[in-house]
């Protein structure tokens, strides 16, 4: 009923700052998803972020046969299986309901089947009060015809011609086509009543959701949410605060869960330095744990070039924080010897740097190498 190929291709070419009407943004794309629970989980993870959220919804709208509720068709949806293979519009709305007023925008370019069209014409397509909505819902195409999401294609034309626009401006320009005459136009602008300041409440309550997303294979989404929480903590509490270091540790663990030992190693080394800068005690339990984990992740790295690059700094860190396991410093040196035998020139150079690396602890115990 709907061909989304052309508009998805066009949207991919649009700069993220235009898509989000923001100077900094991250784009997550779901093309022909098939599992409604996975879609809900991804929307939930995005909705949990405190930053503004823009959601683009493109495709087909149907009513289920039993309860007559609206559903979005997914990759394997059929009219008979819509309740099990489609995304309930109520589920989508529910995930957005708890977000701060004025921080959510939904752009829709949908084609409704006959029953959904009748329902939407009478009752609309409800979303929470604090959500801005723009777009178009088109009637069912004639038999044998395939509809195209023309509204968003015209939005792309406006971005290409005029650059960054507010969503209200974008909508006003995009609906001037005669093609929109037979559709239902949606235009609800919600303003932010109170200027947004950095949250003072802890974001640690999001940790179970983040870990669940990572363990379900949504590593990028989990990392994105953790990064957002870290940035929020940094703005609210400042560098070196317990909340910031907590989210640094979460990011290090997420890199491990995602199977990226190099990234995890660097993250744990950063945690160790941050903790040393705060307490300066090389026998502090949290400092030792961070160095131990950095060391463990380094041993898992199979990229020899990376291992050689990091080795001098890890060895310097290890000499300053040897930990409670005898021989930890020697273990780093042994691996360096193994690397040296595998690639004499570069590894020998790294070993020399590691042997001469110096750990400098300043007045507050800040560690550098």
Description:
It is a single chain. With 369 residues, the chain is α/β, with parallel strands linked by helices. 52% of the residues lie in helices and 11% in strands. The strands form two sheets. Strands 3-2-1-4-5-6 form a six-stranded mixed sheet, sandwiched between helices. Strands 7-8 form a two-stranded antiparallel ribbon. A hairpin with a 6-residue loop joins strand 1 (53-63) and strand 2. Helix 10 packs antiparallel against helix 11 (242-257) and helix 12 (261-279) packs antiparallel against helix 13. The longest helix is centred in the middle third of the chain and has 19 residues, at 219-237. The chain starts with a helix and ends with a strand. 36% of the residues are buried.
Give the secondary structure arrangement, pairings included.
Layout: H1 5-12, H2 16-20, H3 36-47, E1 53-63, E2 70-72, H4 82-85, E3 87-88, H5 89-96, E4 104-112, H6 114-123, E5 131-138, H7 150-162, H8 167-174, E6 184-188, H9 207-215, H10 219-237, H11 242-257, H12 261-279, H13 285-300, H14 304-320, H15 328-342, H16 344-356, E7 360-361, E8 367-368
Parallel strand pairs: 1-4, 4-5
Antiparallel strand pairs: 1-2, 2-3, 5-6, 7-8
Helix pairs in contact: 1-7, 3-5, 7-8, 9-10, 10-11, 11-12, 12-13, 13-14, 14-15, 14-16, 15-16
């Amino acid at each position: 009923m709907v061909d989304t190929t052309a508009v998805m291709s066009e949207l991919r070419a649009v700069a993220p700052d235009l898509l989000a009407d923001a100077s900094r943004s991250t784009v997550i794309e779901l093309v022909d998803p098939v599992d409604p629970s996975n879609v809900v989980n991804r929307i939930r993870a995005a909705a949990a972020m405190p930053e503004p959220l823009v959601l683009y919804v493109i495709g087909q709208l149907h009513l289920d046969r039993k309860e007559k509720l609206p559903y979005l068709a997914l990759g394997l949806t059929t009219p008979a299986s819509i309740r099990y293979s489609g995304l309930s519009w109520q589920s989508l709305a529910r995930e957005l309901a708890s977000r701060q007023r004025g921080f959510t925008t939904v752009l829709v370019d949908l084609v409704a089947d006959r029953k959904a069209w009748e329902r939407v014409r009478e009752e609309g397509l409800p979303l929470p009060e604090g959500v801005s909505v723009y777009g178009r819902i088109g009637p069912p195409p004639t038999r044998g015809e395939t509809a195209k999401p023309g509204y968003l294609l015209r939005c792309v034309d406006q971005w290409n011609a005029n650059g960054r626009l507010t969503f209200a401006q974008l909508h006003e320009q995009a609906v001037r086509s005669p093609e929109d005459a037979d559709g239902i136009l949606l235009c609800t602008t919600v303003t932010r009543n109170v200027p947004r300041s950095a949250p003072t409440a802890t974001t640690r309550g999001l940790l179970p959701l983040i870990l669940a997303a990572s363990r379900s294979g949504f590593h990028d989404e989990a990392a994105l949410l953790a990064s957002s929480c870290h940035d929020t903590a940094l703005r609210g509490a400042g560098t070196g605060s317990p909340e910031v270091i907590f989210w640094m540790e979460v990011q290090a663990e997420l890199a491990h869960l995602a199977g990226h030992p190099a990234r995890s190693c660097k993250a744990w080394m950063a945690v160790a330095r941050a903790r040393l800068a705060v307490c300066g005690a090389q026998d502090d339990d949290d400092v030792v744990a961070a160095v131990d984990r950095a060391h463990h992740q380094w041993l898992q790295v199979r990229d020899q070039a990376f291992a050689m690059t990091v080795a001098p700094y890890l060895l310097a860190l290890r000499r300053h924080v040897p930990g409670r396991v005898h021989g930890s410093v020697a273990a780093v040196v042994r691996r360096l010897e193994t690397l040296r035998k595998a690639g004499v020139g570069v590894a020998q150079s790294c070993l020399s740097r590691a042997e001469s690396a110096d750990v400098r602890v300043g007045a507050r115990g800040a560690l550098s190498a």
